Amino acid sequence: MKIFAIRDESAQIQKDLAYLLYYELEKRFYIELPDNADPWETPLLLDSFAKRGEKTVNSYWSKIWVQQRIIPTDRQNLGQILRDNGLKEYDEFELLILAKGRCAQDDFYLVPLTEADLPKEIVKRFETRIEDVLPLDDYCLLVFFRDGTVKKCDLKTHFEKTAAFNILLKKPDYFATVQMLTGGYGVSWDVNMTVTDSMLYHIGKKVPLSMSDFKNFVVQRVINATEAAELLNCSRQNVLELTKRGKLHPIKTSERNTLYLKSEVLKRNWQ
After folding, report:
1. How, if at all, do strands 205-206 and 150-154 pair?
2. Do 175 and 238 have their domain in common?
3. C-alpha 31: how far from chain center
4. Has residue 79 got a pLDDT over 60?
5. What are phi and psi of 115, to 5 degrees?
6. For residues 183 and 56, what is the distance between their CA atoms, to the nearest angstrom?
7. Which of 89, 136, 164, 201 stands 20 to 30 A from 244 (CA)?
8. Same domain, 60 and 156
9. Could you report the per-residue pLDDT of 25-70, keeping only the tens digit for each?
């Protein structure tokens, strides 16, 4: 992750007006505003977030802010510009860094930072980013946060009130495809169907469980077909036959492996 302070070169006293975070592998931008962000000082476009009291600018609008500061993709002589700057292809981040974030419309620029340079208020926000997420029944998510908190988040009411999520109510299987957003900033089913980490933290009900507890459960209580065969003192082929006959119920299947709950396999020995 690359971190930059956004500053105003025309200001008499230099201070950090916002922080740009860039996740290199996913090529995703996020902007964090200080808790005391002044809308009059905050860069244009980002000032609307400051006015609403929103401190985290989502990836979509963060990218728009970056795109406004670099050469557009429809520039007539774009190819020559890229070659002159040693770029083989159009790269938003590289173009942004070439000019240190400067553009002709204002006096804002970027200053590289390390995570240790960030103010405590920004670092504290990282604590409630999402570490992992597990879809449950009835439109609930089990969300693991970086501060060690685990919460069960019921999203059904939110889906019913928000038109963009209606498809999830019509296609329950689609709900299970939930993915974490880059950096743990929330969860997503599609570019237009995202829920922020702050909302999940707010609506979720704390569960007396830790990530370590969950990992221990998976390690100790989830087994593959070979391990199931050892417990049942039979061949792997017999386990797969029991599965086909509905005597064993796998929790996950793939071309290479089939996983079972150890407790169900053990119960076969009780019969």
Report:
1. antiparallel
2. no
3. 14
4. yes
5. -60, -30
6. 12
7. 136
8. no
9. 889 999 999 999 999 999 999 999 999 999 999 999 999 999 999 9
Please check whether residues 172 and 263 belong to one and the same domain.
no
Same domain, 165 and 60: no
The tens digit of pLDDT for each residue in 174-216 reads 998 999 999 999 999 987 889 999 999 999 999 998 888 888 8
Rounded-to-integer distance, Cα 83 and Cα 67, Å = 19
23: CB partners within 8 A, 6+ apart:
1, 29, 30, 182, 183
Confirm if 197 and 185 have CB atoms less than 8 A apart. yes
Distance between CA atoms of residues 198 and 32, nearest Å: 13
Domain holding 182: CATH number? 3.30.2020.10
Q: Which range marks the domain in which residue 260 is found?
A: 212-268
Written as six digits, the tokens of 10 are: 């025309």
Catalogue the long-range contacts made by 225-228 (C-beta closer than 8 Å, 24 or more residues apart). 225/257, 225/258, 225/260, 227/262, 228/260, 228/265
Longest dimension (CA), the chain: 81
